[in-house]
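Two quick folds needed for the group meeting slides. Do the first one here.
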Amino acid sequence: MTVRPATAADVPAIADLELDNLGVDAWSEGLVREGVVGNLPTISYLVAEVDGAVVGHATASVVADIAELQRIAVDPGHRRTGVASELLDAVVALAREGGADRLLLEVREDNDGAIAFYAAREFVEVDRRRRYYRDGATAVVLRRGLVRGCGGAQGR
């Protein structure tokens, strides 16, 4: 598996992953394209590739000392194979390189698997956003510190 920055050629695969994983909350192919080609200056797209096929993607924003994991999605046939972990590790590295001292994300409160995944990777709950998703579901805001003194990972 390879994790690399996304290119314009990856946009259709990323848009398909969005739809398959996020349904009504998926970002459109047009919005994905804007981010991938660099028209959204704080946004970075990464893809995970296996045998030449895009099997996962992550979208992150880094602004000053705060990074946000906006998206992470993995093809159902490649789940539980380490793809999400590799993508998350790449986002953490990207955030650190960009000068962030913490990484934030939102996850649906009813997504026990994702919450457990992030908890095992040193994320802690810091807030909740009621009616955050289109269907009215609540988002759990998670945070991982990226440097000493910022909580979570303690500078790893």
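Then this one, please, same format:
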Amino acid sequence: MITVSLCMIVKNEEEVIERCLSSVSDLVDEIIILDTGSADKTKAIISKFTDNIYDFQWIDDFAAARNSAFDKATMDYILWLDADDVMDDINRNRFSALKESLETDVDSVTMEYQLSFDEYGNVIFSLRRNRLVKRANKFRWIGPVHEYLEVGGKIYNSDVSIAHKSLHHDSDRNLRIYEKRLSKGEKFSPRDMYYFANELMDHKKYKRATQYYKQFLGTGKGWVEDNISSCSKLADCYHYLGDYDNELDAVLKSFRYGGARAEFSCRLGYHFLQDKDLSSAIFWYKLATMLKPTREQAGFQNQSFYTWLPYLQLCLCYSQLGEYKMAYLHNEVALQYRPNDQRMLQNQKFLEEILGPEVPGINNTEGKDDTPE
């Protein structure tokens, strides 16, 4: 069985750090924490779990801090987490099994990172991250902001998931760091352009964000998942700016970087729905229902587009066409994903009143075999 060092960097995390460490402390063989300037009870709480607490002078460089933590690890593999990350019981068991079974020639293990959840606890956004790496390889973190772990060799895509349960976020911190770097005349890498554009968009600086997304895509040197994400975010910016022609162009540009994805199929469906071209809208929403993300797909995923959303939109399209039976069937599929969704329940009631004895699978035995096309 492999041994694992948990390495973390923290600052003023008294509200979440105990929750995080309690969920993983018994699964790892060593805990190493770098504190970058806490002024609250963070270090006192951490001391319940480990004596390996180190002070690190903050220099506006996340990679430097993470690399320093990694340098102090002594076990076979290194696991990294943020203070507001949590591992639930199901994934604790999966991680324990992983430790028992992992082949020692594996260089890095990816895990799903669940970033946000809906009101029913379903995962909305997720991506995959290199989360557990072989210490002997001395993999390094790259980038002062939105740092990434540069890995190579044999990669194993595990079934373990980490949940991000943030309570607070210093929303201006990363933007300040990027602006400071720009003011010093630093030349941004393509990756910097992408993440700076993300920060600008998050702060509703849409026009400036479009400039950096286009600049990033123009380099031709971006990671394919960042290219695809840029097209989506660029479309968002144009939408907020009311520039719907460029919004459509950004969506279509995404197909240059990979196959069809449900996110963009739904966006095209919405575009044609707004234009009242219901036939085209139905085509794109139907395509979305046939597309599934793969475990190997490392990019940012909005699960709504792969589950309930296209079915709900198909319900709307068919209702507008007066095809209430098809509308009802698609709404029923959407309800399977969100059985307490009030919009879908209202749709169900409305359509049952219209259809009466023609409700598929309820009052009409012929309807029980009907399925959405």
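Slide caption for protein two: The chain has three domains: 4-164, 173-259, 276-373.
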